[in-house]
Specification:
Strand content: 35-45%
Distance between the termini: 17 Å
Structural class: mainly beta
Helix content: under 10%
Number of strands: 18
């Protein structure tokens, strides 16, 4: 869990589970183990997006910062995070308020949609090695004043569409994704007794005959309610 507020450092809490069936979860402060992530108070983080951008089976973090450059933190698999923003081609100060991970081009890795008070951007993921910044794929994107965004397959064609909640000088918009030209996989999770939508479930996808072999991992997703500044995506 990451706790954030304006003008305060991020707090990184690790869930150690329950000690018994009737007890509450125990959280341990792990902030000191990732100083690049938690040691700054000037990020002015508006929202946080979680996703496995490099398909290595753990969750990485993107910080949508309002004034300072946005940040991408890579998980080393042991719960420690390092800043890889410059190395991966992500950054810049764009008055950012929100971000959403999603495989927008259906190539098997997560792309990133970033909503700003100005021009919005898609960062196309190039197999986890680099991100390609793109604003031209979005129509009427000269000054969108987007405060919030969400991703969903609105037309049930197997790809993710984009919804932006805009204010002041522009209307909210829906961007239909026309890119789906291939097969797709949809998985529905359901809790057995409670947690009806299976929030928190982890899903690993491997090549046939190679279950559990990290060299043949095709993708990893966590079922979560995506929350950001003033909006979020359903699981």
């Amino acid at each position: 869990m990451l706790l954030y507020t304006l003008y305060k450092p991020l707090i990184y809490l690790e869930n150690r589970g329950r000690s018994g069936p009737d007890s509450l979860p125990v959280f341990i402060d792990r902030s000191a183990g990732s100083p690049e992530l938690t040691g700054r108070f000037d990020f002015l983080t508006q929202s946080i997006a979680f996703g496995d951008y490099d398909n290595d089976g753990d969750t990485d973090i993107f910080l949508a910062n309002r004034v300072t450059p946005c940040k991408l933190f890579e998980n080393d698999g042991r719960g420690h995070f390092r800043d890889v923003s410059r190395k991966k081609g992500i950054g810049g100060s764009n008055l950012t308020y929100g971000a959403n991970w999603g495989d927008l081009d259906q190539d098997g890795d997560l792309d990133l949609f970033v909503s700003n008070l100005g021009i919005n951007y898609i960062y196309w993921n190039q197999s986890g090695d680099l991100f390609e910044k793109d604003s031209l794929s979005l129509a009427m994107n000269d000054y969108s004043y987007t405060r919030a965004s969400a991703l969903a397959d609105l037309d049930a064609d197997g790809d993710l569409d984009i919804i932006t909640a805009n204010g002041a000088v522009s209307f909210s918009r829906i961007y239909r994704n026309p890119l789906n030209q291939s097969n797709f996989l949809k998985i529905w999770t359901e809790g057995a007794a409670s947690n009806r939508s299976g929030i928190g479930s982890n899903i690993w996808l491997y090549r046939a005959g190679h279950i559990g072999d990290s060299a043949h991992l095709l993708g990893f997703r966590t079922i979560r309610i995506e929350t950001g500044y003033m909006a979020g995506s359903l699981p």
